[in-house]
Design a protein that fits this description.
2 helices, about 30% strand, about 260 residues, 22 strands
Length: about 260
């Protein structure tokens, strides 16, 4: 009975984690470029009371007795499936259709990666994120630009007064990873490379397996509200069942404590 209390408590802790991940997904359902989280559980070590194959006389135990000790979370990973596009018509709103990340420079000089393409222009004409982080490679838009266009391959072109021919300002390169789920989440929809994700491979959008760039749109969250609500209900019911197991074990202990000769 004491074993059952411990096992059920691990189940309640696991379902608390499930609800926390679902809550974070739902909280970011409208966050541009957000990628939903998912969890993996694994059973814990087993207590072997009788090993399968134990010899008894001339025979052997065919099954044995092994009692599990509960459940634990093994990972909470990001699912990088494509989110729906939201049309904005803003010239610096960019979305990636397919594989790849935009690259930005953090204040400490390191590179971070994002799927959020809600870019702005700072006082010097550089393309930056909402937090002011420069997009890589550094691009400066001429101050007298009349029209700004970004091609599907990331070429940034500006039309200036007195000319109808666009001038190439630069090209936005994309990065991709062998295992994007292994990226380290920094918040603000930014990720950093880790040993698990592998080193980034950079290249031109639309070539060598990279996705294409779509101007005037952003990629919405890939959270499915109906799916998250179902996950929340399942987690809630599992939590209730584990709490019932604790209650039942407590009642059985109470009966054992009240036994009289």
């Amino acid at each position: 009975m004491m074993r059952a209390l411990s096992i059920a408590s691990t189940g309640m802790a696991a379902q608390q984690l499930s609800v926390a991940v679902v809550a974070n997904n739902l909280a970011n359902v409208s966050t541009v470029g957000f990628k939903k989280g998912r969890w993996d559980f694994q059973d814990l070590i087993y207590q072997t009371l009788k090993s399968p194959g134990t010899l008894i006389g001339t025979g052997q135990v065919p099954v044995g007795i092994q009692i599990g000790t509960g459940v634990d979370a093994v990972s909470v990973y990001r699912g990088f499936s494509q989110g729906d596009f939201q049309q904005t018509d803003a010239p610096l709103d960019l979305a990636i259709e397919g594989d790849g990340f935009f690259q930005v420079t953090l204040p400490d000089g390191t590179t971070a990666y994002t799927r959020t393409g809600s870019f702005k222009m700072d006082s010097e004409g550089r393309i930056v994120t909402a937090e002011g982080y420069s997009v890589l490679p550094d691009l400066t838009i001429p101050s007298d630009t009349l029209t700004l266009t970004v091609t599907s391959q990331g070429d940034v072109n500006a039309i200036q007064p007195g000319s109808t021919t666009p001038t190439l300002v630069g090209t936005i390169e994309l990065a991709r990873f062998t295992n994007p789920a292994g990226l380290n989440s920094l918040g603000k929809n930014l990720y950093q490379a880790t040993i698990a994700s592998g080193d980034p491979t950079t290249g031109t959008a639309g070539l060598d397996g990279f996705g294409t760039v779509l101007q005037g749109a952003v990629e919405g969250s890939n959270v499915n509200i109906a799916e998250e609500m179902v996950n929340m209900i399942v987690a809630q019911r599992a939590y209730e069942l584990n709490s019932k197991a604790i209650q039942t074990s407590d009642e059985m202990l109470g009966i054992a404590n009240n036994l009289k000769r």
